[in-house]
TrEMBL record:
Domain of life: Bacteria
Name this protein carries in UniProt: Guanylate cyclase domain-containing protein
Residue segments, region Disordered: 917-946
InterPro entries to which the protein is assigned, alphabetical: A/G_cyclase, HTH_77, Nucleotide_cyclase, P-loop_NTPase, TPR-like_helical_dom_sf
Sequence ranges assigned to domain Guanylate cyclase in this UniProt record: 13-126
PANTHER family: HTH-TYPE TRANSCRIPTIONAL REGULATOR RV0890C-RELATED, REGULATOR-RELATED
SUPFAM superfamilies: Nucleotide cyclase, P-loop containing nucleoside triphosphate hydrolases, TPR-like
Length: 946
């Protein structure tokens, strides 16, 4: 330095500059580097030295200058950067990228130099900058007045400079001709991470966090897989926030969602880590070299936006250094060695073991309170909250959107509207206007993409790709946008399969999917599972496949748009008919005893098929499906639902004019009559019984007519016309014998036996039932009910024959429970309660009565012919036990599930095994009354056993 140079004193602004990546540039250019370096020096001396700055040191590619005026120093740096950017370099790769840092502090020169910590602070500010960037300290920003025309300073926040304990607020010079977006400054922050700050609370997921944390601790690559909106990102960030201290070189969050070119994935990660492209070197090599000696966790989010490129970069990172771990979120796995795939489950919709609300309800509660201005939902809305989260399958995004709707709806109103799930959850959310370039990007993304275009040969983003980038940011604004994000990546076969699977209401197995498509679905199904649009659930008997309800709603909309709904849903109706037929057949294809348990898993699918039959399909098919569930509706306490489906199907017939054969109408009307009777609608029961008879006579099918006529006594019994009902039963049975269709008249036999029991004609009832036993055993649809044994048990109770009653009733109960006749099982439990009362065990009797009544209430079942008989027996028990003891035992029974009550009943000791047990009844006990007798009409002698 010349001694004639005047060095400023007092408040001095120090400037440091150097070339970013000078070593790599020298290796790239070889002999051509020296001319570039000379030209770089000439430009800087011309621009910086031509000002009031004093050049203290030039060494290699570095400059050190001092200015008396902060504004002049910033102007000099701006001029130098513009000169470097506009200069005609030999090649674009040869252009040096110079970083500049400024700091202003009080300093006095001595012996031609400055011995001040302010110089070191200025050097650290420069070291924090990136090539092409001008950074200054807060002290410089305060004194830089006026700024150059069109220039401004961007506050980058507080940063800890290397070697300094305090924090320095850094500013970036913005002006036309300068780059705008850069990675975070290269500073020694105490907490090394860039994890996004969450504005809402994290709810639940304790088990999932613990499980995922263990995997991240043990494995270097863990991929969190799940459908859009399943909460992958939120869980990954929450987990990463808790383990920052475990990674001395940082935890870095990188969102791949907005990357529009596979070649930019490495640049996106590098930008977050503060790395810039090195001339002539692939960015992934720079990235791997940087990470090799570091211990850090990289959280890669939304990797399904660029799965192949993400997989390649991850593989290189993991191979380059043992200290790097990757936690990725995606809708499909990478399939690279060492990857551990963890599928995020939906939020639990079931209450916790301690009785607390499920995670799904807890999330909905939390977000609803926020949506309603801090007001929690009314306690009366709790049941509807559970309905909502079940309909949404515990999908977090759907729950968040649902909570927003609760600003204008009650929870009950929301639950009712979820049949149109997409329309309800996305209501009021329009596509936002395109943001300005700066607003649409965070940190480095915009200019990083433009910068690397020249360095890597990748075209810069077009307006179309900018729109894709915006859609990536907005993909969680609506449920439809979230699913579309995945749907657009599907091939034709996979997209078609997704649409067609929407016709199913629940899980399906592989043969079912194959039946639906009439084609091998394995390839497209694998794609849907891999992309988390379909969940594969392994079982011992084979995997099943299901969609979450929000995805199903989306696929159903796409099915309509594709014009495929009619074909797909008709195919589903055909499958439903086939499934109903298979439920009645054994492995050999022969009819087996009907088990209503076999129909339980089909209920959801059959309802979906019925819905289509009643709105867009064939009402005739719908009547067939409803008939396949004939007994199921009543035994599950759903007689009213069965009636409503029939009414809707009648409306469909009237709407379309579809021709239904009389025999099929007769069967539907007969079923309707039985439903109405079970639902307590006795006038409707009689009306449809008469319609069934008229249609059956038109059909000319004697067996059908016998079944319909056999049901004519039921409405009469329900209306208390017992004598008329008995007459009708006898006529039907006699006619059925004449026509050789007596097996179709079983219902009339049962009804007549009940009527005979009621008026005490026990011998005739026993004889009638004895003859009916082989008829019942020959009919698969009836034999599981064991109605003959039930009625013989009631006859034996009326006779006081505890042994016969015990044996018949237990046989009936075992069969009814084994085959799913839950409503009828309640009657049998009541019968065993009477047997216990007569056998000297009043406490067990009261418990069984309580259990049976609780289940009947759940099933909304009418009392039937036995109703008064059960009440009379309970009144007698109350007199024997006293009110307190009876109520206590009855209450204990009411807490039992039907399965527990049946186990209790089946465990009742056989009368012949009891010590000193009499053969009939209890010694000294009064003889039982006839069912229709009042207490003062009890006969003096006990009837003889059959």
């Amino acid at each position: 330095m010349s001694p004639r140079i005047h060095l400023p004193s007092g408040w001095v602004t120090f400037v440091f500059t150097d070339i970013e990546g000078s070593t790599r540039l020298a290796q790239l250019l070889g002999p051509g580097y020296r001319p570039v370096l000379r030209e770089h020096r000439r430009l800087l001396r011309h621009t910086l030295g031509g000002t009031d700055g004093a050049e203290l040191l030039t060494e290699g590619d570095s400059f050190f200058l001092a200015f008396a005026d902060a504004a002049a120093a910033l102007t000099a740096c701006l001029t130098a950067q513009r000169a470097l950017a506009s200069h005609d370099w030999p090649t674009p790769e040869a252009a040096p990228r110079v970083r500049m840092g400024l700091h202003t502090g009080y300093a006095e020169p001595r012996d031609g130099e400055y011995a001040s910590p302010e110089v070191h602070r200025a050097a650290r500010v420069a070291a924090a900058a990136h090539g092409g960037q001008v950074l200054c300290s807060a002290a410089t920003a305060r004194r830089a007045d006026p700024l150059p025309d069109g220039a401004s300073l961007l506050d980058l926040g507080l940063h800890r400079l290397r070697g300094f304990d305090d924090r320095e607020r850094l500013f970036q010079l913005l002006a036309p001709g300068l780059e705008r977006q850069f990675p975070r400054p290269r500073t020694a922050d105490a907490v090394a991470h860039n994890l996004p700050t969450q504005v809402t609370s994290f709810v639940g997921r304790e088990l999932e966090r613990a499980e995922l944390s263990g995997l991240v601790e043990r494995y270097r690559l863990v991929t969190v897989l799940g459908a859009g909106g399943a909460g992958k990102t939120r869980l990954a960030v929450e987990l990463a926030c808790g383990i920052v201290e475990s990674y001395p070189d940082g935890v870095w969050f990188v969102d791949i969602a907005a990357v529009t070119d596979p070649g930019l994935v490495a640049f996106e990660i590098a930008a977050v880590l503060g790395l810039r492209p090195e001339p002539g070197r692939p960015m992934v090599d720079t990235l791997v070299e940087y990470a090799a000696a570091r211990r850090m966790l990289v959280v890669l989010d939304t990797c399904d936006a660029q799965p192949a490129a993400s997989a390649e970069v991850i593989s290189r990172l993991l191979a380059g250094g043992r200290g790097v771990r990757v936690l990725a979120t995606s809708r499909e796995s990478f399939g690279v060695p060492g990857e551990v795939v963890w599928r995020i489950p939906p939020l639990s919709v079931d209450p916790r073991p301690d009785g607390a609300e499920s995670d799904a309800v807890a999330l909905l509660l939390d977000r609803t309170v926020a949506a309603r201005g801090g007001r929690p939902p009314d306690p009366a809305e709790q049941a509807d909250l559970r309905r909502v989260v079940r309909r949404l399958d515990g999908l977090p995004l759907a729950i968040e959107l649902a909570a927003a709707r609760l600003r204008v709806l009650s929870v009950g109103q929301l639950a009712e509207r979820l049949d149109d799930m997409l329309g309800t959850l996305d209501a009021g959310r329009k596509e936002p206007d395109p943001p300005p370039v700066e607003a649409g990007w965070s940190g480095n993304q915009q200019d990083t993409v433009d910068l690397v275009a020249a360095a890597s040969g990748i075209s810069p983003p077009t307006p179309a790709t900018r729109a894709v980038q915006r859609s990536a940011i907005e993909r969680h604004l609506t449920l439809q946008a979230t699913v579309t994000w995945s749907y657009r990546t599907l091939g034709a076969r996979s997209a078609r399969l997704l649409r067609w699977l929407a016709v199913f209401a629940g899980p399906v197995d592989l043969p079912t999917v194959q039946w639906l498509l009439d084609d091998d679905p394995l390839d497209p199904l694998s794609v849907l599972v891999d992309k988390s649009m379909v969940l594969a659930e392994p079982h011992a008997s084979g995997s099943t496949y299901r969609m979450l309800d929000p995805i199903r709603a989306y696929a159903a909309r796409r099915l309509v748009e594709a014009g495929e709904e009619q074909t797909a849903r008709d195919r589903h109706v055909a499958w439903s008919r086939h499934a109903l037929q298979r439920a009645r057949l054994g492995p050999d294809g022969r009819p087996v005893t009907l088990s209503l348990y076999a129909l339980d898993p089909l209920a959801g699918e059959l309802r979906a098929a019925l819905r289509w039959s009643a709105t867009g399909g064939s009402a005739r098919s719908g009547l067939w499906l409803a008939g396949g569930l004939d007994q199921w509706w009543r035994e599950r306490g759903l007689a009213r639902e069965g009636r409503l489906w029939l009414f809707r199907l009648y409306g469909r017939i009237a709407e379309t004019g579809e021709v239904i054969p009389e025999a099929e109408l007769a069967a539907a009307y007969h079923m309707h009559s039985l439903h109405a009777g079970a639902d307590g609608e006795f006038a409707e029961e009689l009306r449809y019984s008469q319609r069934a008879e008229a249609a059956a006579r038109q059909a000319g099918d004697l067996g059908l007519l016998a079944r319909v006529l056999a049901g004519r006594a039921a409405p009469l019994i329900d209306m208390g016309q017992f004598a008329e009902a008995e007459r009708v039963c006898r006529e039907v049975i006699e006619w059925a014998h004449e026509q050789d269709v007596v097996s179709d008249a079983l219902l009339a036999i049962y009804n007549l036996a009940e009527l005979l029991w009621r008026r005490g004609a026990l011998d005739e009832a026993a004889e009638l039932l004895g003859a009916a036993r082989p008829v019942e055993a020959a009919r698969p649809a009836e034999r599981g009910r064991r109605s003959v044994d039930m009625l013989l048990g009631m006859v034996a109770l009326a006779r006081g024959d505890l042994v016969a009653a015990h044996e018949h009733l237990l046989v009936a109960l075992r069969s009814r429970m084994s085959h799913g006749y839950l409503g009828r099982a309640c009657d049998t439990v009541n019968g065993i309660a009477v047997r216990c009362a007569l056998g000297g065990d009043p406490v067990t009797a009261a418990r069984l009565f309580g259990a049976a009544q609780a289940t009947r209430a759940d099933l909304r079942a009418t009392p039937g012919l036995y109703g008064q008989y059960w009440l009379d027996r309970q009144a007698e028990l109350r007199r024997v036990l006293g009110d307190g003891a009876f109520d206590a035992a009855y209450g204990e029974g009411a807490e039992l599930a039907l399965e527990e009550a049946a186990a209790l009943a089946l465990g009742v000791e056989h009368p012949d095994l009891a010590v000193d047990s009499p053969r009939f009844g209890v010694a000294g006990a009064p003889a039982p009354r006839r069912p229709d007798q009042t207490p003062d009409q009890t006969p003096a002698t006990r009837p003889h056993p059959a």
